[in-house]
Amino acid sequence: MPDRVAAMRAAIAEEPEPLVTVTHLLRLCRDEHPVLWERVSDPDCRARVTVVLTELAEVLPARPGERELPRAARHALAAALEPVDDVPAVVVAHALAELVDSTYGHTFAGSFRRRSPYQPGVGDPVPLDSPDLRQVTAMAATSPPWRLANRLDETRRVRLAGEWATRFQVVFDYSATELLAGLVTAGTVVATCHPNRSLDDFEFTRDARRRTFPVRPADPDAQLAEIDRLVARAAASGASIVVLPELCVTERLSARLRDWVRRPEGPRLLIAGSHHHEDEAGDDSPRRRNTAVGWVRGSDLPLLQDKHSPADRPVAEDIQPQGWPEIRVHVTADGWHLVIAICRDLLNPQAVHALTEAGVNLVLVPAMSETLVPFGGPVAQLVGSCQALVVVANNPAEWADTGDLVAHRPARALFGHPGFGQQTRFVHAGDPEPGVALMTVSSGRLRWLTVHNDEPSIRVGRPSSKPEWVEQLETDLIRRQMVEHRLPEQVVLRPAAVLVLVTDGSIGPRVLLTERTPDLAHYPGQLVFPGGAVEPGDDGPVAAALREAGEETGLDPDAVEVLGVLPPFALPDSGFLVSPVLAWSARSAFTGSANLAEVSTVREVPLRELLDVPRRTPGDCGALGRMTATVVDLLSGMLARTTG
């Protein structure tokens, strides 16, 4: 132990990051917890701690808002751990960890964000952000406003990961932290939407083993119209968070529902239920998945979560989870830890323990279950331990088979709230009609609104109808974003973007290309997508691509609908990291002229011609740039998969 304490003192003396210093101290507290428990209240130990804290107050912090430990503070912390009489170092270490937490806790979120997406191992720090519920709800919480146990491996804002970190791939994701800020306030209304009356509304595909895949709406167009009605009613009732049930959409429907968060009157966060789909696994064999998709206002990237606990009733769900089950925690700037869980995943006791240990306090659950009673225990545990808000959206309204004499009508929704006397409340409806359940966060008030078919369906999106191949491209982009993440905040190459604009032609898709003037330094005379460097005033690659396309070709950005962003390409020769922005236009509109200093001609070229090598000659199409050709091949492959 003397050698270990000496090594820790040396590390602390050289460590400028407060979060790492707290981690060093808490690891000692965890390993020496029997000694700490025994001596923490000893009068000699408390006297020594008082002296240490008094001395440190003179050098910690050096300046208000300090984000790094100054050299004087680091050496003072190390010196405080020097052996004194028989006072164990672990007692002082515990006091130092709490002191650094209280003084430098404002830096921890930035430290975790720099590591995002962050997957802790055993003994690594875990963020414990605790929103002040008194600012959110007028109800008296049924549990203390902080955690129930006084643990010795945690401070107010940090906890060390335990063995649960080996059972689940827990990832703390800060990619949408600013977009999700202010999502939960005293005025927040959360809604669950329930579009289906019975199992007859679904199509169940069973194989010879009676395994079922996929489960999907029997009439997707009617289902979308019903969901649009429900989301419109929820939004009109003030809901800023909307949760749809499990398997109530297809891939294409979930992609189309993204348009709701683009509307000013729509919700800020929409969990578009979940859907069955097949992906190609690493060995080229198909993998069946059940994936929930969440859309956030201001982002084209979805929040994604795969299901890991297949259903066994009323059908045997034939999905094939691979690898460690993942729990992705989306952290907001104001301290909420958001997790999407799919139905039975919330019934796994080990998963609930991991959620509790990770400090998760906002859980949104698409479900498809003949009863919500088993969900009551896990939801109550999360509410009591983490002061969590939990929302479970169930579907359909009736589960009775035609030969059943007993009509099974489960609860339509389940809400967990720290102000509820029993911590959970079920929402039942008097009839099986589609409807919306609403919870007001400040008061815990619950309401049920029945939505009838005679109410108008409010469709979202642009008025121009897209060809089927465009919608299939949009769906494929969602799949790709399951493994693609945002660009890192710091890159060696300069960020740039190009606009890959597709339109519909007589012989299939066409793409917009520019022929660069022959006297340019980079790619002279080549056919390329319009684009350029991301400027300081651009809000990311999408804005840069639209701006550059307008400057180079005169394209009207209002005539363009962005579908998504393809993986970036590194171009070392020109020093750019280029993000291709895939977009669709029913008919390209040009409000200005081409920039003749950079562009010789502007062409809309059929994709088929670009892939037909004998036709790809300098005389008719020019020479494709290397990255442009790669994107054309990628686009062709995507279309081949979606239409094949």
From TrEMBL:
<keyword id="KW-0378">Hydrolase</keyword>
<keyword id="KW-0460">Magnesium</keyword>
<feature type="region of interest" description="Disordered">
    <location>
        <begin position="271"/>
        <end position="290"/>
    </location>
</feature>
<dbReference type="Pfam" id="PF00293">
    <property type="entry name" value="NUDIX"/>
</dbReference>
<dbReference type="InterPro" id="IPR036526">
    <property type="entry name" value="C-N_Hydrolase_sf"/>
</dbReference>
<protein>
    <submittedName>
        <fullName>NUDIX domain-containing protein</fullName>
    </submittedName>
</protein>
<dbReference type="InterPro" id="IPR045121">
    <property type="entry name" value="CoAse"/>
</dbReference>
<feature type="domain" description="Nudix hydrolase">
    <location>
        <begin position="493"/>
        <end position="627"/>
    </location>
</feature>
<dbReference type="InterPro" id="IPR015797">
    <property type="entry name" value="NUDIX_hydrolase-like_dom_sf"/>
</dbReference>
<feature type="compositionally biased region" description="Basic and acidic residues">
    <location>
        <begin position="275"/>
        <end position="287"/>
    </location>
</feature>
<keyword id="KW-0464">Manganese</keyword>
<dbReference type="InterPro" id="IPR000086">
    <property type="entry name" value="NUDIX_hydrolase_dom"/>
</dbReference>
<keyword id="KW-0479">Metal-binding</keyword>
